[in-house]
Model the fold of this input.
Amino acid sequence: MLGVYGATVGAGTLFLPVEIGTRGPLVFFMLLLLAFPLSIVPHVLICRVFMRDHQTADKSLPMFGTFFGAKGQKAVRVYFCLAHFPVTLVYAVSLVNALDNLLSDHLHITIMSRAWLAFIIVAGLFMVLSKGREKVVSILSTLALPFALTVVIIAAIQIPHWQLDHFTAALSATNNVATGETIKNLWLTLPLITFAFCSTPLISPLAAHYREKHNGGENKAVRVVRFAYTLIFFSIIFFVLSCILSIPHDTFVAAKAQNLNVLSVMEGEGRSGLLFYAAPLIAIIGMTKSFLGICLPVAETFADLITETTGVTESKGKTIAFLLMFAVSFAVVYVNPNVINLIETVCGPMIAIFLFLIPVFLIYTRDALRPLRGVTPLIVLTGGVLTVSALLYGML
Done:
């Protein structure tokens, strides 16, 4: 349970306050209403689907193994890479931005250009990945839970600085916003909620663990997911609420314009307190952890696909995969696209297809999953369609 909790309350959580603080309290109310069903219900359902996939899990993900043929399995693995690689780009961009902001705005140090900083950081991340799964997992195990608990502690530290005026002023400002714009803001928040609360890469190995003999089976796996997501929901809601009550609206607007996460713009006591210097450093740690956690299965899956498709050796396949991913990552980090827009228009909808739509498709097309049919898959389907449609609505 703590593993799922620590992996989910990560860097993605740091984007929610910026978006909600920018778009207003109505989005926060929607978060209260929809975050829990949009997170716990699809994760429980995909856990049940994974539990009934009796193929032995490979080193990355089982990818619904027994429910697809050879071509179908390869297609799902390709889609997994396409859906989750943009997530690693979000974290890489945010990591470089957070570090650059810490050096320039907090420590008043100018060391190098963005190009060199991006190259060094991205190269360092891929060097860690090249050390292998065991090394990366060891780092993640060390960082995940402490980071999640630190986020909650920061939210608690902010309590003395809560000002209800921040909330009421932003709420009154929404009266001057056109109805169509308000609906669009609410709709576009759905992919961000999906992104911030997603732990799909962890659910699969969790299911594989409980599928092993003497580990308790499906009921225990589902219980872990339910307890973990209850804790996740209250932790993230508490963090977001604390941020929007303690940070002025203008600060969120500036953070979004500068492509920064919420910890990088916390001013603490007059831009001189411990939080002013510690919060950006914590954000850097969180972005690093999340990048490694998502990029590991993506890189492994991509390397396997290259090896199978081209017939090269595993080591060459891994080298090709890493070089291609490094080149794309460096280019995107250098260009510095807006990360929240990237989440809303690419990451959130594509993750929703993998988390919401593919499991429901399997449930209604595979006899082995017939017992899972009912109200729950229809709820998941509705959430998935709304989240994916946000991609189209955002283009209007």
Observations:
- The chain has one domain: 2-393.
- The two ends are 40 Å apart (CA to CA).
- The chain has a mean pLDDT of 86.
